[in-house]
Amino acid sequence: MKQTNWYKDAVIYQIYPRSFCDSNGDGVGDIPGIISKLDYLKELGVNCVWLSPVYNSPQEDNGYDISDYRNIYPPFGTMDDFKKMLDGMHERGIRLIMDLVVNHTSSEHVWFQEALKDPSSPYRDYYYFKKGRKNGKKPPNNWSGFFGKSTWERVGDSDEYYLHLFAKGQPDLNWENYRVRQEVKDILKFWLDLGVDGFRCDVITLISKKQDFKSRFPSLALTGKDAFVNGPRLHEYLHELNKDVISNYDAMTVGETVLSSLDDARALVDPKREELSMVFNFDHTDTDNYLGIKFLKRKFKVKRLKKVIKKWQLGLFNCGWNSLFIENHDQRRSVGRFGTDEAYREVGAKMLGTLYFFLQGTPFIYEGQEIGMTNAHFSSMDEIVDVESHDMAKMAKANFLLRPLINKSLFEVSRDNARTPMQWDDSKNGGFSSGTPWIRSNSNYQNINAKESIANPTSIFHYYQKLINIRKNDNVIKHGDYVELLRHNRHIFAYSRNFENEQYVVICSFSKKDLKVKGIDSILKGKLLISNYDNPQGNTFKPYEARVYKLVKEK
Ligand code: NOJ
After folding, report:
1. Is the shortest distance between the CB of 280 and ligand 1 below 6 Å?
2. What is the pTM of this model?
3. Ligand 1 centroid vs 64 CA: distance in angstroms?
């Protein structure tokens, strides 16, 4: 099948179904709710949706724990609803990529249930069951997982444990077993034959593990990660999926490549190697923490952001493809983050949007980002549902050294900040549900909602519409190179993109004060493509001002 690489021209909107739109008043978003909002997506201008998991699941990790890969979680709807939604998207020129969660299943998946029931069942080898140390009293090794705890759960009072890098209801699949790989390929085929256009591959860099299962030198987080991140057979497995399935369709894959270096990523997206279409890199989300641990918050610095953006823009230029994002369901909201201030919500949100939309790669917008939704400002663990946050709170309780650090940042960085219901209008619960939402709505829905944003021509929504429009068929953004400008300025992030005789210059201020920017006089002569202020003039930048100029060089 001919690969059209359509994803390079896509702007992708992420839907977290549980929080998007509830059609039947049970407090949980659902597929009919999504169908009712397809015209909204069309109006925004996106041409692809990434749908977080809608498969059947006990929802320990909100669907990232799948118990049946070929059915829909009943509160979200039925397979018929799904097909209707897919048709509705395609009719509007919107593609759909599904979330592929195959590093682990749910512990309620029939494979795992069979494996538990009968140790001699072939399903036992679908997972990692290992004997514990000290006659089973201690786990097989000292690895610690992504939610802070041991990666091992004991099976009843036997001496065996099973591996889970996330919650205990998420046992890791054993990809060494060719049958597991065959099952995954069948799942891919099932959805591609239904007409979906690709996959966002959840924690895909974890699927291959070193097989020694020995303890490692203890570290603050993720002890043993050298054994389970970017494992020895990762590339081989991805190539196999690509060759046997993906390449038979005009489909794309984007890998959630946790903890990948630039070199790892280059190999993963090198078109010649036929592995993934693009990667999600997280370096920029670590510009406000220590050691890549989000609970260890650190003051944001523009210079750190400049450094990582440059590294990835240059690093994948002409050899791979970036994905671009500032929010998703695992990150707190960007309003008030990355050096912005919630008090300057509107200009700040538009500035960050400008900054990442002109980079090379495919931009993703997370639901609510386009209307500038804000963090929830939680004040009690009772308001938080997320399993990761609760596991971290337990860890803090048990570890007096980490306690002050985690407790200080937990409410602020909890993933639930991004999972409060989508704010559609100023009616009860922001129009998300007529019932009681599964997680409380953000109290600011009366002012911040999609209805208001659509009615207000200068809203963040309309600004995103413009950004999306500018990108359409734009060669400079798609093909141009990346040149960092004003490198030593601590408050300004500026870069140019250059293609043939055209140049775009993006200048973004991270200052809350008016700022005189030196050295841009020749740029100011260009044509202003977009700005988050009316009629910006001269070299004084207002708080969080962003401008993009187009310059045409004489041939
Ligand atoms: C990454 C997903 O984005 C996150 O929400 C989930 O908890 C883990 N993977 C485990 O599937």
Report:
1. no
2. 0.97
3. 6
